[in-house]
Amino acid sequence: GLERTQFALTQSYLTYRNVVMTLPGSGLRLESMADLAGHPMLAFQRARQALGPDFAAVAAASPGYREEGQQHRQIRALLHGRVPIIIGDRRILYHHLRKVRE
Fold first, then answer.
1. Residue 94 has pLDDT above 80, yes or no
2. DSSP string of 59-72?
3. Are 70 and 88 in contact (CB under 8 A)?
4. What is the pLDDT of residues 28-69, one digit of tens each?
């Protein structure tokens, strides 16, 4: 038969801090979420759901918007000029950036 597993939820120990990353010298001036509209960008998988309706509206207004499940590919796309904006957790993006630089 099926075993019953008991579990308990705990306090959150990791909070995602999502950021917008561009290359220095890109000329992009991004001061609000609305400033993202119309620009090609690559976000983490399911970002439209995770970041709420305001971001979903911006994504819908950006013809070059895509989501990527493997976040190391976001860094590569940014560094190789395939996309001017990436969106993801600060720690994850910087981790992959350090790995690419090594």
1. yes
2. HHT-TTEEEESSTH
3. no
4. 989 999 899 999 999 999 999 999 999 999 999 998 999 999
C-beta separation of 72 from 44 below 8 A: no
> How confident is the model at residue 12, as a pLDDT?
64
Beta strands in the chain (DSSP E): 18-21, 41-44, 65-68, 86-89
pTM reported for the whole predicted model: 0.82
Q: Which helix (H) or strand (E) holds 56?
A: helix 52-60
Q: Tell me, what amino acid is at 60? A: A
Three-class SS state of 8 = coil
Instruction: Report angle CA 47, 52, 57 to the nearest 5 degrees.
Output: 85
